Amino acid sequence: MLLHNKSAKILVWACLAVALLLLVGAPLLVTFMAAFAGSWNGVLPSNPTLGHVADALAADNLASLQVSLQTALLASLSAVFIGTWAALGASGAPAESAVAKVTDAVFHLPAAVPSVVVGLGLLTAFSKPPLLLNGTVTIVVLAQTLLVLAFAYNTVSAAARGGDPLLPLAAASLGAGRLRVLLTVRLPLLLPSIAAATGLALALCMGELGATVMVYPASWRTLPVSIFALTDRGALFDAAANTLVLIAVTVAVLAVIAFLGKSRGKAAR
Fold first, then answer.
1. CATH number of the domain enclosing 91
2. What's the Cα-to-Cα distance from 37 to each of 43, 51, 125, rounded to whole Å?
3. What is the C-alpha to C-alpha distance for residues 109 and 216, in angstroms, rounded to an integer?
4. pLDDT tens digits, one per residue of 201-226
5. Could you tell me if 210 and 111 are in contact, meaning their C-beta atoms sit under 8 angstroms apart?
6. Which residues form the domain of 162?
7. Does the structure show a pLDDT above 70 at 101?
8. In a domain, 257, yes or no
9. Which residue from 30, 49, 100, 252 puts its CA 20 to 30 A from 181's CA?
10. Residue 175 domain-assigned (yes or no)
């Protein structure tokens, strides 16, 4: 077998490392260098400066970062709440049943279309009374919620379907009501997957642009929209500095979510 051969394993891992370096490492390295570059006329940047990073931490960009954090938190928590509720409901039905298939189809639909289609659909649906959302913060949160809903549902649904079905039955046989079984048995067992779904949804929301750029009001501009505007004006070094700030904050928030998820998971066990 190919993978049983030591030299073949080394070759596969080497190819994987090169692919990751080219697809992930190289763009990050170029972004990092551009953020501190005063000019870039050759192979490598020159005249290093902290000016672009300082500008990225200025009031306007920090306001955009704050908007991104607020929007991502609201959208990811909404998506995880709805996705968890749907996953718990669908887990009680057989995988081949009509209920499970319809639920899967409904929650995967937003991920099956481009994000600009979601943005256009929201603009069209909520552009007139009685439900006028255009130009509001709500439509931005709604757009990002729809875009990450499938990922939140998938993550929690896989854990809900793979769990031991006898545990809730055992709790019920001991006299626990449905609400108590849900709060003390089912949800605690799903906490690691809920934390993972929250982290994934938040990371996707922090970098979302396609739908957001179509629906955002001028008073609620996320950092990816600001980065897009900078690149559109040709300010690539400033855009790179803002991208570094966005990556750093996203990683920090994900680390906090992972820590809280592990702590709650250990406490539940």
1. 1.10.3720.10
2. 12, 9, 44
3. 22
4. 999 999 999 999 999 998 899 999 99
5. no
6. 52-268
7. yes
8. yes
9. 100
10. yes
